[in-house]
Amino acid sequence: MSKNKQRLAVAFTGPSNSGKTTLIVKVSSILQDQGFKVAIVKHDPKDKAMFDKEGKDSFKFSQTGADVAVVSPNKTTIFKKQTSSIEEMIDIFDEFDFLLVEGLKTLPLPRICISRNKLDDAYFDVSDTLAIDDSINQNDVPEGMNILDLNNSDEIVQWIKNNAKKV
Q: Given this structure, which CATH class describes domain 8-49+84-166?
């Protein structure tokens, strides 16, 4: 389904509950509907994500300390006992058009900061543009900062197409 494996990446940042995941889901759906292959990486800084259930074989395998891959007809799940670099993730996904990264604000990627209800200037230095809704007063946005309408997914997808970085 992929157009031609463009391997373009963009990141999303912002405070908890600002709408990052919701926006990434919308953007991913739009890009896939347009025939692009999308990969997503989410940063889990507090190590809270759970991918397996106690008692299952894959859980027992992962408890041995080994890296484990579970392969089924429609997916592959990898349980690795150490963190992965973005380069490793790019290699794992390999053939994609767009890589959407949630978090990992130190990565040198074009970055959209999602803000709802209040601006958090801690994200301004690592962001290339702000995606805001009507809860933010545009007069509070720093001069020179690009603004996208958080509720206009097509506008955000176009910004991504124009600004994503080849990886």
A: alpha beta
> What are the residue boundaries of the structural domains of the chain, listed by start?
8-49+84-166
- pTM comes to 0.85
7-19 confidence digits (pLDDT tens): 999 999 998 888 8
Taken in order 41, 114, 121, 44, the sign of the CA dihedral is: negative
Q: Which letter does DSSP use for residue 145 in this model?
A: -
pLDDT, tens digit (0-9, with 9 covering 90-100), for 67-112: 788 888 887 778 777 777 888 888 888 889 999 998 877 888 999 9
By the 10 Å C-beta count (0-12 exposed, 13-18 middle, 19+ buried), 133 is classed as middle
* 153-163 and 20-33 helices, crossing angle to 10°: 80
Measure the CA–CA gap between 81 and 9, rounded to whole angstroms. 25
CB 97 within 8 A of CB 36: yes
